[in-house]
Amino acid sequence: MPLSLLKYGLSRDYPVTGDIPATPDLKRSYDVVIVGGGGHGLACAHYLAKYHGVTDVAVLEKGYLAGGNTARNTTTIRSNYITPEGIAFYKEGVKLYGEMSGELDFNVMFSQRGQLTLAHTEATLRSFHLRAEMGRHMGTRLEVVDQKGVEALCPRLNMDYGGPLEVLGGLWHADGGTARHDAVAWGYAREASRRGVEIHQRTTVEAIDVEKGRVTGVVTDRGRVAAGAVMIACGGANYEVAKLAGVELPIRCYPLQAMVTQPLKPWLDTLVSSVSLHTYLVQSSRGELVIGGGSDPYMSYSTRSTLEMKEHLAEGAVHLFPFLKGVRVLRQWAGTTDMTPDYSPIMGASPVDGLWLDCGWGTWGFKATPVAGKRMAETIAAGKVPDILAPFALDRFERFAVLNEMGATAASH
Ligand SMILES: Cc1cc2nc3c(=O)[nH]c(=O)nc-3n(C[C@H](O)[C@H](O)[C@H](O)COP(=O)(O)OP(=O)(O)OC[C@H]3O[C@@H](n4cnc5c(N)ncnc54)[C@H](O)[C@@H]3O)c2cc1C
Predict the structure, then answer these.
(1) Are residues 372 and 239 in the same domain?
(2) What is the pLDDT of residues 213-232, one digit of tens each?
(3) Is the alpha carbon torsion for 257, 37, 232, 357 positive or negative?
(4) Which end is more exposed in the chain, N or C (fewer Cβ atoms within 10 Å of the end residue's Cβ)?
(5) What is the mean pLDDT of the chain?
(6) What is the pLDDT of residue 16?
(7) Cα(133) to centroid of ligand 1, in Å?
(8) Would you say residue 20 lies in a domain?
(9) CA 73 to ligand 1 centroid distance, Å
């Protein structure tokens, strides 16, 4: 096997096909500069090029492609939010995930296996009824299931009958799913670069030029670049990068951790999340159990993972599925999440003309990658925010028009 692999690798019959051209020289100016080569920046570049004919675009990424939160997330995709604005937006995101492999001619391994959120208290169950009503009203597949329903959906689950964490019911979201995060980013990058978008890795934006209230370009560690429009999509660095243009975002950063176990035979065919245990699990296509929970309780830019969180996640996972005791943890990691006060993103205009925001994605932005990319591209191309994005404007915090999604975010992301 290793020998045939080597022969295959060295054979002229199978030349290396570089999907992303090597980083070119930076031009002096572009129509659009996107700061941040994560899923959001790359998706926006793709939609700009493919649907709006805007190809004079540079994506500037300080590290390697999608090495920020896109690489660190646990890939929950869902639309079971609370506010009508949030549900409408994320519902479009789930739909676009369903079409993504065809759109990008790249298998992003979207698996719509449904998400089950567990209620261990009557109060949680009541809140699930509210969410199910809202969701159904907005056309998502969302229902409250009783104990028998939970057992049918997840037969190996510890129901803890009579115990302090008895599962009283669940919120079943048949639209929920998961996809391969690096495939999403690479698919968008490949399609964007095929249409002429330049992707510049290892290129840090250090300053943003603003003249008479309008953005005119950026300064990078490879030189100054003029731009007609600039979009900020920098994940955990959004606050700092917006500050370069004098824009102060209502964002505070918290670490968010996750871990994976050794691979197991496929046995878990839904996403499972427990509000009370602050733990969720999904089995990856490789068989690893991806386990996540809530954010760390303190603000920090640290991406170190902690023993406390590992113990917490292991405890939650073993409580839900006691047979996991003894399964080994392979990796643990953390990302920096840019949290807004209402747990909703900030998209659209900034106080600086021509400077667009795709920020505040906290712990929930992977699922929004295609819809944010598509709608931000529309915004930049038209110079106008479409109705679906209008509620997420930065000035909602001044108008007290917040979109409170805290209850729908919790440990589910
Ligand atoms: C542990 C964890 C689990 C998560 N789980 C989920 C989940 O299950 N579902 C979900 O929907 N979301 C989840 N999220 C959130 C999700 O990962 C993010 O919201 C999403 O990836 C944001 O994508 P992005 O492209 O905006 O940011 P990123 O992927 O972080 O990309 C931003 C890029 O900007 C670059 N950058 C920063 N500063 C500069 C600069 N000055 N110049 C140039 N480039 C710069 C960074 O290097 C980075 O690559 C999770 C996050 C974490 C950390």
Answers:
(1) yes
(2) 999 999 999 999 999 999 99
(3) negative
(4) N
(5) 96
(6) 67
(7) 31
(8) no
(9) 8
Amino acid 35: pLDDT: 98
Instruction: Give me the pLDDT at residue 1, please.
Output: 58
Atom index in ligand 1 nearest the CA of residue 369 equals: 23
Same domain, 198 and 220: yes
Whether residue 257 is found in the same domain as residue 313: yes
**Cα separation of 40 and 231, whole Å?**
10
Q: Which residues in the chain show pLDDT less than 70?
A: 1, 16-17, 410-412
Q: Which helix (H) or strand (E) holds 86?
A: helix 84-104
Predicted confidence at residue 20, as pLDDT, reads: 79
Cα-to-centroid distance, 70 and ligand 1 (Å): 5
CATH of the domain at 139: 3.30.9.10
- Note down the domain range covering 156: 115-174
Q: Which of 111, 204, 366 to mutate to test the pocket of ligand 1 (most atoms within 8 A of CB)?
A: 366
Cβ burial of 322 (10 Å; 0-12, 13-18, 19+) is exposed
Structurally, how many domains does the chain consist of? 3
Residues within a 6 A CB radius of ligand 1? 35-41, 60-63, 66-70, 72-76, 204-205, 233-237, 241, 256-258, 292, 335, 337, 361, 363-367, 413
**In whole angstroms, what is the distance from residue 18 CA to residue 58 CA?**
18
CA of 126: how far to CAs of 147, 162, 262, 395, in Å? 15, 20, 36, 32
119, 151: one domain: yes
- Domain end, chosen from 290, 315, 339, is at 339
Cα angle, residue 66 at apex, residues 23 and 254 outer, rounded to 5°: 135
Q: Which atom of ligand 1 is nearest to the CA of 66?
A: 49
Are 169 and 298 in the same domain?
no
Pair 128, 264 in one domain? no
100 part of a folded domain: no
Cα distance between residue 346 and residue 252, in whole Å: 13
